[in-house]
Amino acid sequence: MTTTGCLPATNNDGIECDADRADRMTAPPPQMIQSSTMRVLSGIPLLAAWLVLPAWASDHNPPPVQPATAFADVEIHDAEKVAIAAEPYETKEKEAIFKVDYLSHGVMPVRLIVTNNGDRPISLRDARILFQTAAGEQLQAAEPEDVERLMTRKEREGAKIPMPGPIPAIKLKPKASNKDIEDDFNKFEYGALVVEPHTTRAGFLFYDVSQLDKPLKGAKLHLHKLRNADGQELFYFEIPFDKYLQSKSSQMN
Predict the structure, then answer these.
(1) How many independent structural domains does the chain possess?
(2) Using an 8 Å Cβ cutoff, are 102 and 209 in contact?
(3) pLDDT tens-place string over residues 93-122
(4) Are 31 and 9 in contact (CB under 8 A)?
(5) Which of 6, 74, 100, 113 has a Cα-to-Cα distance from 221 of 20 to 30 A?
(6) Which domain holds residue 219?
């Protein structure tokens, strides 16, 4: 994909508003993007155990929405009254909210939080949100089919455990199915075209960093072509992930 494409299309993960409720009720509804080796078993008792393995948990939900200023890795434009934060989900513990283990396939989920503290809406209709590597390469956010291509056929279809004699092989649940990927993108991907006054919008973007050894070090989230209510382009945002890494390091000390 090119690095100049628009935002991927799907639902955002939540809203937090602090404007007067009456003002909000008179505003038009927000526009949203529509988009997008185990060993052979030797006995029947073990077979029964495999057959009752629990399915994936169904309570994978987005984290609560907070203002961008509540995050360590934030850039604030006081004059424009806009704050944007980025939070990488770079650990197994954090990415457990998803159905798919993206990190093991070289995909970095990054949560984008956009807070509009002004009195007029801002538009992300034409926005470009790119992962800029330490070497300066700009990566477009991945689509579900991009993630699917990074996974092997066995991972998508599920492995089989051979059984002795006439007993049919046991088919294990796939590590990540195409449906799981689609479900994650539908639920979590950032998708707000408009951020209303005194409102926070948040959601995830997924970047293919499979060719990078240390994807966050020296990298930045680069945003431009955001516009105010008059159509004027806001000053670009450049959020360095080193700030997030430093904050994480200080919390561990």
Answers:
(1) 1
(2) no
(3) 999 999 999 999 999 999 999 999 999 999
(4) no
(5) 100
(6) 14-50+62-252
pLDDT band at 173 (very low <50, low <70, confident <90, very high): low
Does 229 reside within a domain? yes
Tally of residues, the chain: 253
Residue at 196: amino acid letter: E
Any domain includes 217: yes
Q: Tell me if 120 sits within 8 A of 196, measured CB to CB.
A: no
Asked if residue 204 lies in contact with residue 109, where contact means CB atoms within 8 angstroms, the answer is yes
Task: Specify the residue for token string 């800029």.
Answer: 132
Q: Which residue did the predictor score with more confidence, 8 or 170?
A: 170
Using an 8 Å Cβ cutoff, are 190 and 202 in contact? yes
What is the CB neighbour count within 10 angstroms for residue 193? 19
When pLDDT is averaged across residues 47-73 and rounded to a whole number, the result is 67
Q: Give the integer Cα–Cα distance in Å for 249 and 253.
A: 7
Q: DSSP 3-state assignment of 250? A: helix
Confirm whether 55 is domain-assigned.
Answer: no
Contacts for 83 with CB less than 8 Å, ≥ 6 apart: 67, 68, 69, 74, 75, 76, 77, 114, 115, 117
Pairing of strands 128-132, 138-139: antiparallel
Asked, for residue 8, whether it belongs to a domain, the answer is no
Quickly list H helices, 52-204. Answer: 144-150, 153-157, 178-188
* More confident site: 83 or 58: 83
